[in-house]
Amino acid sequence: MSDRSRPSPASALPAQRRAADSVGALPGGRVVAVLGPTNTGKTYLAMERMLAHASGMMGFPLRLLARENYDKVVKAKGAGQVALVTGEEKIIPPGARYWICTVESMPLDHVAQFLAVDEIQLAADPERGHIFTDRLLHARGTEETMFLGSDTIKPLLQKLIPKAEFVSRPRFSSLTYSGHKKLTKLPPRAAVVAFSAADVYGLAELLRRTRGGTAVVLGALSPRTRNAQVQLYQEGAVDYLVATDAIGMGLNMDVDHVAFARLSKFDGQQPRRLRAPEVAQIAGRAGRHLADGTFGTTDEAPPLDPELIDAVENHKFETLKTLMWRNVDLDFRSPQALLRALEERPPSPVLIRAREADDHLALQALAQDADIMRVANSPLAVRLLWEVCQIPDFRKVLSDAHTRLLSQIFKYLRDGPAGTLPLDWVAAQVARLDRGEGDIDTLVSRIAHIRTWTYISHRPGWLDDAAHWQERTRAIEDRLSDALHERLTQRFVDKRSAGLVKRLADGRDLMGAVDRDGRVLVEGHPVGRLHGVAFQLDADVPAADAKAITTAARRALGDVIAQRVRALETAPDAAITLDGGGS
């Protein structure tokens, strides 16, 4: 392999030709673009097509989606036939014929008859777009390639891949705007959308007070925690979900209504208003298959403009004009040569050079370290340095601490006696994260750190007994994720309030009882005491829930109190006494 190349994709096209090629004229079979809005069955179609071939590979935008679809293919073909490849998880049976991956982790040197990339319109995303563009231009199945996504990318696909076939998929159900509603008046089975952790937590707290509870979904949560929170919602333990735009990318949930509490987001550089396709992507979570959905605004978000409403309801959006691109013909002769290659201009006017990604920024930072520059003195060392720079910081902030970690890892791998990371150092780094105490933010931070170590454990040759460290880091992530789910549920779900509020809202009869000690039970939940005909709420009921639970208790105890009043009315005078206070 030359110093100016990387592993070639399934097409085995030389790197230089691939870098210059901007029209996707690669060898291989037919290329099909399946385009349309959300809830059109695009992914289902691609999965069917893949399983009709003897071998296949699919790239998904989220690890969560990769895992979900891996499980589906395993069910259809058996575990020995299916590989799962993400940055943090690799399950590769010796005879695997179907590879389910995140887009970033697709092994492009693996030959498969069928290849598909989901959410291909993300090629325009400022942060990750260059990865999707690379797959669009260079990844092919030998018999069939399928790109799934929004209609907004169609004109660019026609320019970049002239021979592509296009299949349009209509939405199975309608999506209708229903205006602005107060947060406390939202219908059940609703998802409330905001774009910062602070806003999500604040909205979730309010829904806990008024509706008994809510699940929460943020991009910062681990996949296991997100799954647990979604399951809490799916099982009906709560009727509401508060989320960031993390729900917009294919999470399968039974949502009837999507309410935008905010209409602007921070895009990594500055706050900006949501674009119409982004609103549609998120609003499209409302309604599943043939069930219609609604969308609107709530809380601080004003009603939507008529033009935006029309665009979302009728799927009419301005098409993409450019896609993000980054040079893949990299020069490993020196760190400076590598930086120059990363700043190469794109070969087509419809491609624009992506802003510096985290790996690029990390390389720039490490290039200022004289010790690193001293040992990064060969193509092999520069290639290793670039691999180290690609270690993700799942906190999404390129901090000095992360840069120092990368520097230390590179020096150990480059100069260590075994060329691997010292096990005692790794053990100490991992052990300090294996603690389940702390608040929500603390656990989120620990999960981000352990996910970085899970990624490191999957790098070939970096660790002795890598399987042990993969299992160890995954077990820690699972424990931390379970603890985080428990904290989120404790904070944002009052199971007693949630159950009673739901039954009140549904107008259902409530079952109430009083035990021989005067304890009042409503639907099996202890809520207070009945003294004669006076109900006293338990002191441990949060003030915010007092009104709802008192209402539930009085409704449930109506017959009991009425019986006591009748008994008092019909009791003989001798049975009634007054205490010293006149009671």
Residue stretches low in confidence (pLDDT < 50, at least 5 long) are 1-25
Largest sheet: 8 strands, mixed
Tally of DSSP helical segments? 20
From the N-terminal CA to the C-terminal CA, the straight-line distance is 96 Å
The helix/strand class is alpha/beta
Strand order of the largest sheet: 4-3-5-2-6-7-1-8
Strand content: 15-25%
The CATH class of the largest domain is identified as Alpha Beta
Total individual domains: 4
Helix content: 40-55%
Mean pLDDT: 87
CATH architecture label of the largest domain:
3-Layer(aba) Sandwich
Task: Give me the CATH fold name of the largest domain.
Answer: Rossmann fold
Shape: globular
At the fourth CATH level, what is the homologous superfamily of the largest domain?
P-loop containing nucleotide triphosphate hydrolases
C-alpha Rg (nearest Å) = 29 Å
Question: What is the assembly state of the chains in this entry?
Answer: single chain
Total E-strand runs: 22
Written description of the protein model:
The structure is a single chain. α13 runs antiparallel to α14 (400-415) and α16 packs antiparallel against α17 (466-492). The strands form five sheets. The chain has an eight-stranded mixed β-sheet, with helices on both faces. With 583 residues, it is α/β, with parallel strands linked by helices. The model is unreliable at 1-25 (pLDDT under 50). It has 20 helices and 22 strands. The chain has four domains: 15-168, P-loop containing nucleotide triphosphate hydrolases (Rossmann fold); 175-314, P-loop containing nucleotide triphosphate hydrolases (Rossmann fold); 357-491, no CATH class; 509-575, no CATH class.
